[in-house]
Amino acid sequence: MTSRSCFRHLNNTRVGIVVPSLGEGIWLPVMLFRPILTSRKHFKAESTDIILTIMPKSGTTWLKALTFSIANRNVFSIDQSPLLTSNPHTLVPFLEYTVYPDLENPELENIPRPRIFSTHMHFKILPDSIRESGCRIIYICRNPLDQFVSHYHFILQNKIENDAVPLELDEVFDMFCQGIQPFGPFWDHMLGYWNAQLKNPQKLLFLKYEDLKQDVSSHVKQIAEFIGFPFSAEEENQGMLEQISRLCSFENLKNLKVNKSGYFIGSIKNSSFFRKGEVGDWINHLTPAMAERVNNLTETKFQSSGLVFKM
Ligand code: PAP
């Protein structure tokens, strides 16, 4: 891979832009260049795998908790769920942060099936085997204003590089509008997966954070059907959809001891994955002019795609 010598400090994360071999114009944290290349070269998806794909701060933690619980509901009862003692990021590993940061061929054979992995990669830079095998992809996205605010708070809470000085919100916002944030540009990430699901809806389920907030149980049912583990009538009558929804709710997960303390990959506080969990919190942090700038950008980028957000 070659990369332009174009690095910026985004608060405390250095991001660098990646050029054509990995898909032009994708901004990645520098520390992830190598793990992403390694996973692209070595990861072999199986037809039973479930791959969760997400722009950061768009519902990763929630989708991991839900999918893990749905796929393993016959292995663990709700009151024995590993989610009660493990952060969702431990149960569903990231290809780039957890599986491939150090090893070319980590041991993935003994993981119980279905294996569930996650990644923040754009569709166009996914390992080929994910696109080409029969595995399923679930994508979740979130409106750009809440995603931006969520990410800004996350980087303030987690100092990843010691020498980096936090930027002001205005400057980070300006970079966001130019597409510069980890795994940005925001709009290209979404459009890649949106277009892929239009082409192959059996392969890719496209979800929105805001829709899940409105009615999580119906999405629990939809995810279960999509991954080939539909709920029986008996399970539905027993209230299994609602039990899983409650187990994975923001309030429940945030208040678990494991998520109030501890760290993910050494330096990221588990608690920082649970801030407010609301739709529309952007209004408390951004001016109307900022919102208008993003709305105009979104309209231009998504025009004629059919993709819209509830703010
Ligand atoms: P990641 O990409 O770094 O893993 P991710 O989980 O996608 O983060 O996003 C975190 C956001 O999801 C936070 O939003 P906020 O900053 O606006 O509050 C977090 O609060 C929210 N979140 C985490 N878990 C849940 C959940 N169970 N239900 C709803 N929202 C959640």
TrEMBL record:
Key word ATP-binding present: no
One protein family per Pfam: Sulfotransfer_1
EC number: 2.8.2.-
Gene3D superfamilies hit by this protein: P-loop containing nucleotide triphosphate hydrolases
EC top class, as a word: transferase
Keyword annotations: Transferase
InterPro entries: P-loop_NTPase, Sulfotransferase_dom
Domain of life (superkingdom): Eukaryota
Domain Sulfotransferase: 48-305
SUPFAM superfamilies: P-loop containing nucleoside triphosphate hydrolases (SSF52540)
GO terms, molecular function: sulfotransferase activity
Family per similarity comment: Belongs to the sulfotransferase 1 family.
Protein's UniProt name: Sulfotransferase
